[in-house]
Amino acid sequence: MGGGNGQKSKMARERNLEKTKAAKGSQLEANKKAMSIQCKVCMQTFICTTSEVKCKEHAEAKHPKADLYTCFPHLKN
């Protein structure tokens, strides 16, 4: 008869393997490079798209005695 589900599965695996090989670089590496915001008190890093609200939440939760601008001086601008 020919073909069968085993052959279809093998072909699908091969196609998917080729698709994953096509992606260049690692997403983890890109994420590490994007961690450009840093708390100056504890040196924890945050991704570059972190909002001021998230920075404020971090400062209030982790450093209640320090103000927001001590933790994140880039927000003064």
From TrEMBL:
InterPro entries: At2g23090-like, At2g23090-like_Znf, SERF-like_N, ZNF706/At2g23090_sf. Residues 38-75 form the At2g23090-like zinc-binding domain. Pfam families: SERF-like_N (PF04419), zf-met2 (PF12907). Residues 3-35 form the Small EDRK-rich factor-like N-terminal domain. It comes from the Eukaryota. Residues 11-21 have a biased composition (Basic and acidic residues). Residues 1-30 are annotated as: Disordered. This is Small EDRK-rich factor-like N-terminal domain-containing protein. It comes from Handroanthus impetiginosus.
